[in-house]
Structure formats: C-alpha cells, structure tokens
C-alpha cells in the first residue's frame, strides 16, 4: 500500500477498469475536499402570481473537487513524470465499436473509507518550484471529478489522515499566517520557520499570500 511523504496511507487516483495498483498515489494527502451536487429547475410563470413556479428539469451528478501537491525537490526529478499520469486519465480510449465515440476512462478517487467513481472533467496544473535549469519539481493540481452514475457512496464525515499534526504536511496559507507561527503549530518550535522557508524556496518570508500552499518538511 502506497504511503505519503509523511508515512500515511496515501489517497490514490486510478483507472477503475485497471484497478488500484495501477493508480497514481498522492505524495501528500488533500488538506480538504468538496463534494457537491446540482439540480436544475426551470421557471414557469404562474397566472395571477408575482412568483414564478419552479419546475424540476434534471438532476446533475455529484462532483468532487480537491487540490493536490506533487513534489520531487528532494530527488530533483521532473515532477511532470508523475503528474502526466493524471493527464492520461483524461485521454479518450479507443471505442470498442465503430458506432461509439472514444471516451475517457472512468476513474476512482480512494482515500480510506471514501471512494468516488467518476470521470475527470477538469484539471489545472500550476508549477511552483524549479531547478536551476528550469526543470519543474513542484506542482499544484486542482482536479474536478463528475459522476455519471447515480451513487451516494461517501460517508457523512470526511476521513482524516491521522490526526491534526499529520494533515499539516501541506499547509494552506490564510490571512495573518506567518512562517514562525506555522512552525510553532506544526513543530512546536517557532525558530524552525527557516526550514519551511528554505524547503519552499521562499525569499520573502514576511509576504505570504492567502491560498499559497506550503509543503511542511519532516524534521530529521
């Protein structure tokens, strides 16, 4: 079973038809994820009323949105070698018969008790760290999965990755965050802020921006 950098059981994304062992394990489990569903209604004018009547039109599939960080800084390898495997999950497969259009594979996102079978409808990749020769070694990936089957297969509570300290392997910056405060929370030692700054290539530690993703390295 694959593990994250923090030695936790890794979430994995895989082609449902090929099985979990062929999938892409997450280097860092998501800090959070969002599941949503939309129903579509049309307005129908009601005689003698100022309020339109809402008529149900169709039910949309559930969507799952999450952000991931992939980091190969320690090895120096091109991070796209890993992230390209996710892009492959959006490529249409050859149709089994000539009268059918090629379609992307059905994929599964699995993390603990949570399992979401869908297709990837949107993915964005942002490179945030590079080697001196321009090779990307860190990427932030935003993925949206959309179900095409009517399934209600997620639990009422989100799974955790092993406790409050563990889930801070990737820290999402909010307004008011400072590196020393973050270091105090994750390490219990504010003086370790330089470790976070160095690992993330931060040259201006006083100018963190909300939404910035920081990888929290383990203490040796």
Question: Nutshell version of this structure?
Answer:
It is built from three helices and eleven strands.
Q: Quick check: average pLDDT?
A: 82
Low-confidence stretches: 151-168
Give the % helix. 10-25%
The helix/strand series, from N terminus to C terminus, equals EEEEEEHEEEEHHE
Q: Strand sequence of the main sheet, in spatial order?
A: 2-1-7-8-9-6-3
For the secondary structure, the number of strands is 11
Large-scale geometry:
globular
Q: What gyration radius follows from the Cα positions, in whole Å?
A: 21 Å
Largest sheet: 7 strands, antiparallel
Q: How many structural domains does the protein architecture include?
A: 2
State the secondary-structure class.
mainly beta
- Between the first and last Cα atoms, what is the distance in angstroms? 24 Å
Strand content: 25-35%
Tally of contiguous helical segments? 3
Care to describe what's here?
It contains three helices and eleven strands; from the N terminus they run ββββββαββββααβ. α2 packs across α3. β7 and β8 form a beta hairpin. A seven-stranded antiparallel beta sheet has the order 2-1-7-8-9-6-3. A two-stranded antiparallel ribbon has the order 4-5. It has 220 residues and is mostly beta strands. About 8% of the residues have low confidence. It has two domains: 124 residues; 43 residues, Membrane-bound Lytic Murein Transglycosylase D, Chain A (Roll).
């Amino acid at each position: 079973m694959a593990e994250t950098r923090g030695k936790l059981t890794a979430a994995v994304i895989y082609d449902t038809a090929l099985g979990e062992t062929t999938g892409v394990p997450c280097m860092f489990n998501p800090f959070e994820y969002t599941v949503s569903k939309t129903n579509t209604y049309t307005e129908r004018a009601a005689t003698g009323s100022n309020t339109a009547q809402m008529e149900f039109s169709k039910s949309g599939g559930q969507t799952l949105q999450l952000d991931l960080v992939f980091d190969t800084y320690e090895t120096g390898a091109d991070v796209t070698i890993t992230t390209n495997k996710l892009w492959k999950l959006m490529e249409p497969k050859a149709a089994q018969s000539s009268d059918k259009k090629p379609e992307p594979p059905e994929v599964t996102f699995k993390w603990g008790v949570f399992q979401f079978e869908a297709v990837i409808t949107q993915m964005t990749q942002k490179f945030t760290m590079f080697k001196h020769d321009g090779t990307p070694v860190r990427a932030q990936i935003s993925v949206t999965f959309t179900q095409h089957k009517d399934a209600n297969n997620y639990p009422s509570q989100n799974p955790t990755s092993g406790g409050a300290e563990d889930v801070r392997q990737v820290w999402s910056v909010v307004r008011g965050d400072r590196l020393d405060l973050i270091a105090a929370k994750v390490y219990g030692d504010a003086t370790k802020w330089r470790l976070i700054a160095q690992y993330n290539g931060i040259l201006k530690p006083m100018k963190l921006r909300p939404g910035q993703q920081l990888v929290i390295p383990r203490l040796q």
